[in-house]
Write a structure and sequence with these properties.
globular; 92 residues; alpha/beta
Length: 92
């Protein structure tokens, strides 16, 4: 069960095969929800903001994605904050 904190965003890093269960488990949650995946095909996740993370890494790509997400989240640079999420979180 998720804690009752509707003001906190839920972020998921994982493959599209996990999305049906993820959506089922979180469908009643009012939180803002973002999922990062690297699927070449279109992933479906109703109620979730889908972000594609492009990388050549095929195994453990989600570790790379999460590390970049955390680096981006910690960055206090106004330019980066204004960009919001992006394929590589505002990196060039």
């Amino acid at each position: 069960m998720l804690p009752d904190r509707p003001y906190e965003e839920i972020v998921f890093f994982g493959g599209k095969d996990y999305l049906p269960l993820l959506c089922l488990l979180t469908e009643e949650t009012p939180n803002s929800k973002t999922v990062f995946c690297n699927a070449a095909g279109r992933a479906e996740a109703p109620g979730w903001n889908l972000q594609r993370f492009e990388t050549k890494t095929r195994t453990n790509w989600h570790c790379e994605c999460a590390a970049e997400f955390l680096d981006f989240s910690d960055n206090r640079n106004t330019k980066h904050r204004e960009l919001g999420y992006g394929v590589h979180f505002g990196r060039k």
